[in-house]
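Agenda item 2: zinc ion complex prediction
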Amino acid sequence: MAKGRGKGRVPPQRTCAGCRTVRAQRELVRVVRTPTGEVELDDGRGKRPGRGVYVCPDENCLQRALRTKALERALKVSIPDDVVAALRERVAALASAQAAGGSEEANGAGHSPQDGEG
Ligand SMILES: [Zn+2]
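Presented output:
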């Protein structure tokens, strides 16, 4: 029970489907199930109608969310492959944008081999 009304507005917060961390909605990537039952990436502002689920712009979170089927459970539909692909792209883009931060030191980024299959 919150007593009194704080001053200032609290930005909307949502829980990441991967790591369950609560973050500002605008920091998270939203996947939405539209009223017609299609699953789409929300391109930006959380304005798309429908049921939404959120994940951090972090590949680990996305992978966990996919592996645990947290997205499917939240939306109660399966996530089409192309949406998963778009989601991966979005997360990768945001993650690298974040990593770039303010400094421009990251030059010549290679891909690191990952064998996490299994
Ligand atoms: Zn997360």
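Discussion summary: Residues 16, 18-19, 21, 56, 58, 61 surround zinc ion (CB under 6 Å).
Owner for follow-up: CH.
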